[in-house]
Backbone:
């Protein structure tokens, strides 16, 4: 199995390169012609390209967020359609779903914000591909070194961790090890369409915070006011304050079994490894 990765320098891309022995890296500056050449003898293309989402959004950065996903995907799909690639897997996000509503892949409602707008156009471009297409809607991916958890851990270790606001917002998450297993599973089964890459047990921010404290043996007494989050991240605060309760029906219907289905088992695994 030979795969090509766009966005290989990112968090998930780095893990994929270690997981699959034969990997081709697609650079964001590659032309369509360059990509077509790189795709010779490639079976799977994974599209993870996109500027970091947890940043302060102003109008300039919103354009970066949009272009880094839509333009890159458009170019990549054009190249894949000219190749012998069998399967195209493109990243997306659970940010497309509305807040405070239980959703699986059949959910037809969507959020009314800039993140959902990006996701819709992102998926539209990916679905122009004429190969097998899988759209991975990622929740919060947990890892002890990178991503949301990795960024937060130093604060928690210093006994300064706490909830965001009152902690009632829901978080759909998944362990990085299960993410790698999802890739392998979807490739093997050739599952098409939207796939929610989340655990079957979303949690509140309060539960997540307390679970981190319990695993680290640290108190969690310092909540972060919502106003502070909005001041730091602007419109991008929706990534941290949104409430997404999403379920992985497509994976479970196809027989996928999570190795770390609940937050306690995931944190024990990740923090013990750390």
Residues:
């Amino acid at each position: 199995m030979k795969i090509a990765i766009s966005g290989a320098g990112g968090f998930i891309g780095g893990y994929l390169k270690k997981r699959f022995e034969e990997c081709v890296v697609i650079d964001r500056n590659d032309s369509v012609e360059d990509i077509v050449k790189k795709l010779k003898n490639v079976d799977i293309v994974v599209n993870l390209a996109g500027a970091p989402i947890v940043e302060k959004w102003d109008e300039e950065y919103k354009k970066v967020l949009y272009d880094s996903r839509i333009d890159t995907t458009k170019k990549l799909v054009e190249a894949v359609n000219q190749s012998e690639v069998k399967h195209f897997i493109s990243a997306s996000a659970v940010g497309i779903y509305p807040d405070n509503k239980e959703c699986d892949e059949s959910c037809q409602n969507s959020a009314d914000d800039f993140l959902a707008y990006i996701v819709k156009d992102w998926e539209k471009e990916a679905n122009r591909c004429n190969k097998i297409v899988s759209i991975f809607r990622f929740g919060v991916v947990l890892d002890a070194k990178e991503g949301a958890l990795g960024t937060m851990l130093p604060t928690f270790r210093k006994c300064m961790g706490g909830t965001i606001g009152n902690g009632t917002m829901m978080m759909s998450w998944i362990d990085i090890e299960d993410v790698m297993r999802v890739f392998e599973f979807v490739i093997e089964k050739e599952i098409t369409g939207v796939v929610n890459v989340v655990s079957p047990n979303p949690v509140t921010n309060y539960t997540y915070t307390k679970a981190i404290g319990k695993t680290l043996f640290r108190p969690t007494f310092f909540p972060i006011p919502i106003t502070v989050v909005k001041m730091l991240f602007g419109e991008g605060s929706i990534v941290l304050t949104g409430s997404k309760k999403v379920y992985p029906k497509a994976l479970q219907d196809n027989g996928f079994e999570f190795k770390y289905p609940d937050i306690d088992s995931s944190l024990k695994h990740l923090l013990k490894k750390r």
Q: What stands out?
A: The chain has a mean pLDDT of 95. The longest strand covers residues 87-93.
